[in-house]
Amino acid sequence: MTVTSAQVAALPKAELHLHIEGTLEPELALELAARNGVALPYQDATALRKAYSFSDLSSFLTLYYECMAVLRTAEDFADLASAYLARARADGVTRVEMFFDPQMHASRGVPLAEVIGGLRAAADRSAASGGPQASLIACFLRDRGPDDAMTTLEALAGHVGQLLGVGLDSAEVGYPPGDFAGVFEVARGLGLHTVAHAGEEGPPEYVWQAIDLLGVERVDHGIRSVEDPALLRRLAADGTPLTVCPLSNVRLRCVPAIEQHPLPALLDAGVKATVNSDDPAYFGGYVAENYLALASGLGLGLSDLAALAANSVNACLDR
Prior knowledge:
By secondary structure, the chain is α/β, with parallel strands linked by helices. Helix content is 49%, strand content 13%. It has helices at 5-9, 26-36, 45-50, 57-68, 74-90, 102-107, 112-128, 145-156, 181-189, 204-212, 229-238, 246-251, 263-268, 280-283, 287-298, 302-314; strands at 13-15, 93-100, 133-141, 165-169, 193-198, 218-221, 242-244, 273-275.
């Protein structure tokens, strides 16, 4: 029996791997560009949408950072998050633990107070209106190194009451998680939860480092864990959740096709995998569309999707 959009939307679920900057749809990007006097090299939303064609993670990040330049004020960040949270509500999301990239915004001269204030304002409005509850995870850009991450953490310390945790993202290959062990230790000392991207393009060794050297509570992506049986046993034994992003994995060519996605192997090994959308404006699907892609591509039934949705709720850091 075919799983429907309405059935997926009816499943209470959390979204745990969502870069809020990656929800910037072309129409809103151009609206904010006009508001803030930022020139984008695209005539209209159709032209910008055509640019959403990537060969790998690096080529995606180039466009991602280019479009991020339109985000300047607390109002911009609030509009961005409000648009996403409305879409998430329609998809049956009850909780979001969203990522944002403070280093990128600081490097453009945008004060942290503007970024965090705008995102928190949208989160508060969502909760007050019966929409998803939302918390913030500040991610360090691994290609900027641990020293810059530590400087950023020091700047974030004044906003720690508005944050749920810290994470690690951006270009993975060549930037092992272990380099950031000291930063994550200080973050835990501030009372922040910890997560990290590992095992997307990087090897299983990066997942080992994330859990053993960073002490993360969740691993973001983690799909290459299937290459290491010992790692699968460790993840299952510890109950460490993975925040898997199926459509992202296919779009960035980490997986050849949805039909070849390793999610079933992860689940068969007893790993607590969850389903998420990553950067949905760029990767062609919000969270419900990721569930539907798994249903059609892997033959998952509604009970399988319900189990994945339950995994996501149980994997929340803020419960």
